[in-house]
Protein 1
Amino acid sequence: MRICILYGNPLKNDKDFELYLDILKQGFEQEHTVDLFFLDEMDLKYCSGCWSCWWKTPGKCIFRDDADGIFKAVINSDFVIFATPLIAGFVSSTIKKITDRLVVLLHPYVKFIDGESHHRARYDNYPSFGLLLKKELDTDSEDIRIIKDMYDRFAINFHSQQRFIKFVDTDLPTEVVAETNL
């Protein structure tokens, strides 16, 4: 199985989170192939909403940056982990940036799912995913609910399943490995 970890932590001095991910990656690598992307060290542009990835260059973003490697790793994975600290009650801008850019992996055409319009799949299979979050001191249940709701919507549009939300502050890496059900 292939696992893709998208790590979006702009807090350069957060060595605890990196250590957590290192232990997590080692746990996965005992049985799986792991791709780990340090997003804040990559050249990643924000989605401009130009629709070029749908109409002009189907399946390819107009920006020539490091995202192409991420797109390939994500769509060829069985499981994706979005790993981020919470900043001002939400995921980091880097994780949000790559989440938005994953629209390149979908068709522009829509279909109705439970009375809502969602993009059609471009590929036969999409990976399940989980969220690995580091809480702030003032993180509350509403912050978590908003994030969960956003990624629940993402799961529907991405033809996927959100398997978990785990917290580096309380959940051990071995629990995250077990929760992926791979």
Note: The CA atoms of residues 41 and 144 lie 26 Å apart.
Protein 2
Amino acid sequence: MKIEYLADHTHFIPTLARWFHAEWGYLYPERTVEILNGLVAERANRDRIPLTLVAIDGDEVVGTVCLKVNDMSIRPELAPWLACLYVDENHRRQGIGEALVAAIEKESARLGVNKLYLFTPSEEKFYAKRGWSVRERVNYLHCDVTVMEKRL
């Protein structure tokens, strides 16, 4: 498995858009797969935020993670954000998610970021094991979530 820039593999954009819609569509019901295609395409950068990394096994995309300027409309003062960490169901529990988090943290530091944020409805323990700390717990988009942060 290798982790590379989405900018070098834009043919994966439709797959990522489908994953995001299936996984988080309940949070953003107005976002169709077509809208998500456009949003994902905007993150196909190498040297600026927003940026997306993809995990590739052979010629198949198996996971992804994004670095976004903002990912939570009720916290516009916090930036930037680790967002959209997703590993294909058939490839979970193999360390891919952990590798993607480490890679986006490294990319963030390369871009001069010294602190990252994220929110998660259900994976607080996963991130805590990787050095993230709880900032707050809030209700966002009708869902209880944990806002976390990490100094790089």
Note: The chain has a mean pLDDT of 95.
